[in-house]
Each structure stands twice: as structure tokens, then as C-alpha cells.
Amino acid sequence: METAKNHFLSDMSVMLGRSMRHIFRSMDTIFTVCITPIAMMLLFVYVFGGAIHTGTDNYVNYLLPGILLMAIASGVAYVAYRLFLDKQRGIIERFHSMPIARSTVLWGHLLTSVVSNVISVIVIILVALVMGFRSSAGVLSWLAVAGILVLFTLALTWIAAIAGLSAKTVEGASAFSYPLIFLPFISSAFVPTESMPAIVRAFAENQPVTSIVETIRALLSDQPVGNDIWIALAWCIGIMLVAYILAMREYTKASDK
């Protein structure tokens, strides 16, 4: 058992190293992921911020959680793209012909997504600090925020894996992320849901982004999180489990071809 475990970890570290080299050889992917969310943050704070009433004096503080989720949704598209290329070029089959744990190929892409999105999130938070973002949160609250963002990244990355393994074209592999990127617009990420029409408000208050945004916002402002944190965790874990099952099913199909 110990040998099998060590074998799996060794194989996974090799696959992670392979995927990370792709990232570091083309750092423009991380900057591309950051550009749109940062542009949105600049636009909403300096152009629309004066006309938006959120009940807070610092709109950057209100806006940042939704911007971070947008960046993650944009970043996971590269996982779908790279998995699609690996499948189309027969790289997955080549790895499976070697004496390695099969699932490590997929886990290498997954962990690379987490690392690259962590880098993107840090860059965006640094820009937000320059724009006036301030937080009274303690270490434990920041760790909770980090944990929720990692769970959200994992959930969306497994969805990206489904898209990458099942897509027929490279465009189809990455197009899945567009609805995810714009989902924060129909949530409490930019404006309070109370200002929305009844039907839109009902959707906004019962979709995952709102509970995740509200939880992160409360943690960063050192306010009680209430039930939002449990709803956010339920959404992230539920989506991750379902997407994991479907992704592994597609991965098995791709492996058997």
C-alpha cells in the first residue's frame, strides 16, 4: 500500500511539473486571465462606482470578491484547452502506455489550475490594494477565504475537465467558461440583489456565486458570515463531486479509445 501511494505521488509530481512548465513558458496566460477582471474592476470603481449604491463607502471592498470569482472562471478555461490538446494529440494514450498511475495525468492538470489561479488571485488583490482595498480580517478569516477560493477553483476545474475531454473542437473546449465568467453579473457581486427585478433577484439569490461572494465579503470585512458560508460550501462541494464523477467518466472513455 505504501509503495503504491509513493508511486502515485511520484507520478503526480511528474505530471504536475509537466503542466507547470507549460504555464511558466507562457506566463501570458496568467496575465491574460488577470487583464479582464482588473479592467472590470477599474471600470466599475472609477466609472460606475459613483452611481452604484451598495451601502458601503469603499466600493472596491464590495466588488473584489466577485472579481476574484470571475478571474478563476476565466483561468480554468486553459485546463479545458490543454486537456483537449493532450487528447487530440494522443498524449494521454502515450502516458497510459507507460507504467504510471493513469489518474495522475488528470490530477496534474487539476493542481496546475489551482496554482495558476492562486497566482492570478494574488495579482488581482495587489491591484485592488493600490486602488484602495482594505481589510480588517484576521489570519483565520483570510485562510477561510483562501479555502473557499480553492474549493471554487476545484469545482470549476472539474467542469473544465469535462469540457476538455468531451469537446470536438478547441473552440468548444474553452467556450464553456463564458457563462461562468458572466454569472457574477447576475448575483450580488456588483450590486445588492434588492435593486433587481423580482425574477432576476430570485435567480441571483439562489445561484452559487451570490452565497460565495457574500461569504468572502463578510470574512474580508470581519463580519458574521451567517448561513452563507454553509450554502457556499454546499454549492462548491456539490458541484465538485458531481463534476468529478462526470469528468472521470469522460476520462475513462478517452483512455479506452
TrEMBL record:
<keyword id="KW-1133">Transmembrane helix</keyword>
<feature type="transmembrane region" description="Helical">
    <location>
        <begin position="59"/>
        <end position="84"/>
    </location>
</feature>
<dbReference type="GO" id="GO:0140359">
    <property type="term" value="F:ABC-type transporter activity"/>
</dbReference>
<feature type="transmembrane region" description="Helical">
    <location>
        <begin position="175"/>
        <end position="193"/>
    </location>
</feature>
<protein>
    <recommendedName>
        <fullName>Transport permease protein</fullName>
    </recommendedName>
</protein>
<feature type="transmembrane region" description="Helical">
    <location>
        <begin position="139"/>
        <end position="163"/>
    </location>
</feature>
<dbReference type="GO" id="GO:0043190">
    <property type="term" value="C:ATP-binding cassette (ABC) transporter complex"/>
</dbReference>
<dbReference type="InterPro" id="IPR047817">
    <property type="entry name" value="ABC2_TM_bact-type"/>
</dbReference>
<dbReference type="InterPro" id="IPR051784">
    <property type="entry name" value="Nod_factor_ABC_transporter"/>
</dbReference>
<feature type="domain" description="ABC transmembrane type-2">
    <location>
        <begin position="28"/>
        <end position="254"/>
    </location>
</feature>
<dbReference type="InterPro" id="IPR013525">
    <property type="entry name" value="ABC2_TM"/>
</dbReference>
<feature type="transmembrane region" description="Helical">
    <location>
        <begin position="30"/>
        <end position="53"/>
    </location>
</feature>
<feature type="transmembrane region" description="Helical">
    <location>
        <begin position="105"/>
        <end position="133"/>
    </location>
</feature>
<dbReference type="Pfam" id="PF01061">
    <property type="entry name" value="ABC2_membrane"/>
</dbReference>
<keyword id="KW-1003">Cell membrane</keyword>
<keyword id="KW-0472">Membrane</keyword>
<keyword id="KW-0813">Transport</keyword>
<keyword id="KW-0812">Transmembrane</keyword>
<dbReference type="InterPro" id="IPR000412">
    <property type="entry name" value="ABC_2_transport"/>
</dbReference>
<comment type="similarity">
    <text>Belongs to the ABC-2 integral membrane protein family.</text>
</comment>
<feature type="transmembrane region" description="Helical">
    <location>
        <begin position="229"/>
        <end position="247"/>
    </location>
</feature>
